[in-house]
Amino acid sequence: MKKIAPHYDNKNILVTSPLLPPLEEFIPYLENIWQSKYLTNGGPYHQALEAALAEYLGVKHICLFSNGTLALMTALQALRIDGEVITTPYSFVATSHSLLWNGIKPVFVDIDPQTCNLDPAKIEAAITPKTSAIMPVHCYGLPCDTDAIQRIADTYGLRVIYDAAHAFAVKREGVSILNHGDLSVLSFHATKVFNTFEGGAIICPDEKIKRRIDYLKNFGFADETTVVAAGINGKMSEFQAAFGMLQLKHVDAAFGVRQRIYQRYAEALAVVPGVSLLQADAQTEWNYAYCPLFIHPEHFPLTRDQLYQQMKDAGIYARRYFYPLISQFPMYKGYESSHPDNLPVASATSQQVLCLPIHPTLTETEQVRIIDIVLAASQTAAA
Ligand SMILES: *Cc1c(COP(=O)(O)O)cnc(C)c1O
Q1: CA of 38 to the centre of ligand 1 (A)
Q2: 0.85 cut: is pTM over it?
Q3: How does the average pLDDT of the chain come out, rounded?
Q4: Within the chain, which residue ranges are assigned CATH 3.90.1150.10?
Q5: Which atom of ligand 1 is nearest to the CA of 95?
Q6: Which of 198, 287, 323, 364 is most buried (most C-beta within 10 Å)?
Q7: Would you name the residues annotated as active-site residues?
């Protein structure tokens, strides 16, 4: 295959790169840990980060976890969800895996092409007597139609747990979207906009449910001699929590850089026929967590996979989030709801999407290199 733009330097560009403050800034935090000898189990940094994040995000209560997947699994346990849960196939596998780990059957519902989120108009048809909850994802950090989803949940007596792994700090009309539903789950994995190396959290509306979640993530211990549930070990360590405290000082600046990068992509690519980007509506304060580019096969000379390969050949590692659909993996493929006929929008979208590199350390030169590949591809004569 022809190499695009050989005059560029050949440094590899990854789709994401972690937010890492200067190392020397972290040293005092480590010294404090060494001094206190508190390594985990709800130590001072853990408490400080819960308080700081609740305030920063504008939420009532937050329970920190060692990762987002354990937080999802525990959220389902906390609300005693069982039977069937309606969810989206257009997400990272951890969304559905958390259901399987709880012995719950995922029921896949198609997405809305405008937002890539669960399409509320298609939820009701998937409800059965066994349905106990809906688990939507704020995909790419863009808010779900939370009002429509809540109306359905209220009508049918269902719980709503949002997988908000992409939605750190996202607001709508000035209010955190993490306050919707019964619980919301965050991920602080290295690849996310705010990271604690590994980490996650459950956002919860009241003290009572927070207490239950705190028991569940600590083996079910309510006090020294009382075990109230078959809990798990989901605790965030002091190292992670301390890093989170430091990250919080840098995250706003990182959002600013992300927004500028996104706008540059949007300006450069808006004019290109056959590709499109997502736009947050005027009410949404987005976190620019991802930059999904959609390649429309009938109007663009290359397929998504051809463009993906051209970028890869040029050292640019764009990612196909989300391809394959969760419903295509072997442990999900057998469900009736996994059939592509049930998921036409998700199936098409997953063939069209290419997430472009976006992270605070991406330089303008690197971004130009990425944009130039899309521009050159758009001018390729149709095969
Ligand atoms: C990252 C992610 C998770 C899993 O979080 P971890 O912290 O990596 O366990 C879950 N759901 C979605 C949508 C994610 O992107």
Answers
A1: 27
A2: yes
A3: 95
A4: 252-382
A5: 11
A6: 287
A7: 192
* Domain 252-382 classification at class level: alpha beta
- Quick one: fold of 23-247? Aspartate Aminotransferase; domain 2 (3.40.640)
User: What is the CA(234)–ligand 1 centre distance, in A?
Assistant: 14
372: left (phi over 0), alpha (psi -120 to 50) or beta: alpha
Q: Which residue's alpha carbon is at the smallest distance from atom 10 of ligand 1?
A: 94
**Residue 296, CA distances (Å) to 56, 223, 276, 305 in order:** 39, 57, 8, 12
Per the DSSP assignment, residues forming a β-bridge with 218 are: 233
Please give the span between the terminal C-alpha atoms of the chain, in angstroms, as a whole number. 14
Instruction: Kindly give the number of the ligand 1 atom that is closest to the alpha carbon of 137.
Output: 13
Ligand 1 contacts CB of residue 69 (under 6 A): yes
pLDDT one-digit tens code per residue, 316-350 = 999 999 999 999 999 999 999 999 999 999 999 99
189 lines ligand 1 (CB under 6 A): yes
Taking the centre of ligand 1 as the mean of its atom positions, its distance from the CA of residue 299, in whole angstroms, is 33
* Cβ of 163 below 6 Å from ligand 1: yes
Summarised one tens digit per residue, pLDDT across range 95-113 is: 999 999 999 999 999 999 9
Residue 382 pLDDT grade (very low, low, confident, very high; cuts 50, 70, 90)? low
CA–CA dist 143, 137 (Å, integer): 8
- Give residue-wise pLDDT tens across range 247-271: 999 999 999 999 999 999 999 998 9
Three-point CA angle 105, 345, 163, nearest 5°: 45
